[in-house]
Write a structure and sequence with these properties.
By secondary structure, this protein is α/β, with parallel strands linked by helices. The chain has one domain (5-248): Alpha-Beta Barrel (TIM Barrel), CATH 3.20.20.70. The chain contains 12 helices and 8 strands. It has an 8-stranded parallel barrel with strand order 1-2-3-4-5-6-7-8, surrounded by 6 helices. The mean pLDDT is 96. It binds 2-phosphoglycolic acid. Residues 9, 167, 172-173, 211-214, 232-236 line the site of 2-phosphoglycolic acid.
Length: 250
């Protein structure tokens, strides 16, 4: 049985003070409950402080992005070593906002995936189709290409440290969620891809999260699908009570 993993992507929200308040609310509400794994991904500016608050709790820390070089003249970027030095275990790579707003392409995302894994960070690797691609009926081939390019050169062993987040772009921040059936169909396609291109064992083990307007009132039906192993949450993770209620629905 795969344990569910619920991650909150705070995006560009919450200054230091607000971050402390949010994470404190999450920790208080969660207690020692560890039915599922919980990850919070605050902005870079809050990572260190959030880390000191989650120590000795089941909550894990993730960053929202990373660069694939160790150091140097890369203004505005952060390295894997920097993330680890402030307590990150996870990093989100290839989020659709990075792809569409900041122009990140599959080859850059692949470099980031490889670098993060080589330096012992776990990766939440995001993929998903646009509305036009879904309407064109090419969802599976879009997702397949993102998997093929993003996971190029990654071993089955390294894959143990990857969570795949399927996030249809048309569902992110729009209030439109994929139906549980639509999501399940793509999740099952992704799991088969992993079974065929890595191993059956890898396919059985890999955690595949759904993301895109997950809310307390739709989480349970999505999370009850056989190939949906958790959720990557944006808007609904910005308040402790809605994030906690999604966690409770696992
Ligand atoms: P949303 O964002 O829950 O606000 O749709 C999800 C995400 O971008 O990870």
């Amino acid at each position: 049985m795969r344990k569910k993993v619920i991650a909150g992507n705070w995006k560009m929200n919450k200054d230091l003070n607000e971050s402390q308040n949010l994470v404190s609310g999450i920790i208080d509400g969660l207690g020692n409950d560890n039915k599922c794994d919980v990850i919070v991904c605050p902005p870079f500016t809050s990572l260190s402080e959030v880390h000191s608050l989650i120590k000795n709790t089941p909550v894990k820390l993730g960053a929202q992005n990373v660069y694939h070089e160790n150091d140097g003249a890369f203004t505005g970027e952060v390295s894997t070593g920097m993330l680890k030095s402030v307590g990150c275990d996870y990093v989100i790579i290839g989020h659709s906002e990075r792809r569409t707003i900041f122009g990140e392409k599959d080859d850059l995302i692949n470099k980031k995936n490889k670098k993060a894994l080589a330096d012992d960070l776990k990766v939440i690797f995001c993929i998903g189709e646009s509305l036009a691609q879904r309407e064109e009926g090419i969802t599976n081939s879009v997702v397949e290409k993102q998997l093929h390019k993003g996971l190029d050169g990654i071993s089955s062993e390294e894959l143990n440290n990857i969570i795949i987040a399927y996030e249809p772009i048309w569902a992110i921040g729009t209030g439109k969620t994929a139906t549980p059936e639509q999501a399940q169909e793509v999740h099952s396609f992704i799991r088969n891809y992993i079974s065929q291109n890595f191993s059956k064992e890898s396919g059985g083990k890999i955690i595949i999260q759904y993301g895109g307007s997950v809310k307390p009132d739709n989480a349970a039906s999505l999370l009850s699908q056989p190939d949906i192993d958790g959720a990557l949450i944006g808007g609904a993770c910005l308040k402790a009570d809605s994030f906690l209620s999604i966690i409770a629905s696992t």
